[in-house]
Amino acid sequence: MFRLSSFRDRLLEWIDSRPYPVIPESSRQRVRHWLLHETNSDLSVSRPRSRLHWGVPVPNDSSQTIYVWLDALVNYLTVSITPSQISHNSQTHRHDNGTEICGSVWPATNQIVGKDILKFHAVYWPAFLMAAGLPLPRRIVSHAHWTIGKSKVEQFYFSSDSKKWLNSIR
């Protein structure tokens, strides 16, 4: 079990910090509602393998599969932070607001996600990062669904170079 309930107050403090890390305001309020009313329980980090055949098996328990969102969200880190950066902070930098970042691409400056996966990106993922002692995304933008070639786009990641674009959509 992941003790999500123990991160509730820190998540609320983060969600209410300025500039607001989740926009638009309606999405920030949805996250606040989840934190205030739905995060009083802990999160199972595995699912029965019978329900999720394709997932990553739990070590030493072939009947269980790692919860897909825990696995998927951790994958974001593996493309941006090497184990030596985590253990030795070999490439630690600071944003101008003092927030420490690892490497050159984490934390995500602007994470743009579909509204149907907002809880995973604005509640679970930040709690996982807090538990690991890693920096949180600076901004999560929740959107109705954008499409490319008639297919729904779930998320985009932008570097700090996209700041002008993000400022234009606020």
Question: How would you characterize the overall build of this protein?
Answer:
The protein has 170 residues and is α+β, with helices and mostly antiparallel strands. The protein has helices at 8-15, 25-37, 68-78, 83-88, 118-132, 163-169; strands spanning 22-23, 46-48, 57-58, 61-66, 92-94, 100-102, 110-114, 140-143, 146-148, 151-153, 155-158. The chain has six helices and eleven strands. A four-stranded mixed sheet has the order 1-8-7-11, with helices on one face. The chain has a three-stranded antiparallel sheet with strand order 2-4-3. A hairpin with a 2-residue loop joins strand 9 (146-148) and strand 10 (151-153). Helix 1 packs antiparallel against helix 2 (25-37), helix 2 (25-37) packs across helix 5 and helix 3 (68-78) packs across helix 5 (118-132). The longest helix has 15 residues, at 118-132. The model is unreliable at 87-91 and 165-170 (pLDDT under 50).
Topology readout:
Layout: H1 8-15, E1 22-23, H2 25-37, E2 46-48, E3 57-58, E4 61-66, H3 68-78, H4 83-88, E5 92-94, E6 100-102, E7 110-114, H5 118-132, E8 140-143, E9 146-148, E10 151-153, E11 155-158, H6 163-169
Parallel strand pairs: 1-8, 7-8
Antiparallel strand pairs: 2-4, 3-4, 5-6, 7-11, 9-10
Helix pairs in contact: 1-2, 2-5, 3-5
Domain Methionyl/Leucyl tRNA synthetase: 1-153
Protein name: Methionine--tRNA ligase, mitochondrial
Keywords: Aminoacyl-tRNA synthetase, ATP-binding, Ligase, Nucleotide-binding, Protein biosynthesis
